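Q: I'm writing up a methods section and want to include an example of the input and output format. Could you take the sequence below and give the corresponding predicted structure tokens, formatted cleanly so I can copy it straight into the document?
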Amino acid sequence: MEEARVRKIDPSERNQQLIVKSGIGGGASLSMQRRTLDSRFARRYFVGYGIDVGGGDDSLQQFVELFPLIKNVFVYDKAHGDAQKLDNVDDAAFDFMFSSHCLEHLYNPVEAMNNWIRVVRSGGHLVICVPDEDLYEQGVWPSAFNSDHKTSFTLCKATSWSPVSVNVFDLIAKFCHLVRPLSVATIDHAYRYNLPRFDQTSTPLCESAIEIILKKL
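A: Here is the clean output for your methods example:
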């Protein structure tokens, strides 16, 4: 295990045997039908060698046949090192970076974003999803639905009920010298606003997220 933490990551390495689980998947799985209907993911964003930070058993690698220009996806998880630092990943090692619902589990989103951008080549893309605090946590902190969440995220509010809220626009603004934002959007696909409070991502269709798509300068 310790050797795995310090060795350099090879973008072309097939790093694990994936196990597809039955039942409702995580955030990445919930998003894939939506992404297959948007040709930009298959033709622009998911092209070449990618790294999925925090993918675990809900990784983009499970769906590579849906995005034919992907050469490989390395799923970087706890066994490989610290997702906030990626200190065993070389600069500009990957053509694209994907992370679905990992950033909220890290102590320092700014440091994480800096390193996630660092490992992508110039002209490559980053696709990042985080929970929207109003759609997912729904006014309660600490999170009632995931006790490991260390940060909540909002697109743009003057004030937040959350004591650890991060404004996504403010976060991206710190990196405008490194990336060009292509899309920053609330993803409320199949979200039902009239239902009583519960974790709607536990249903087969619903997303409760903010999606960030960046192009490395």
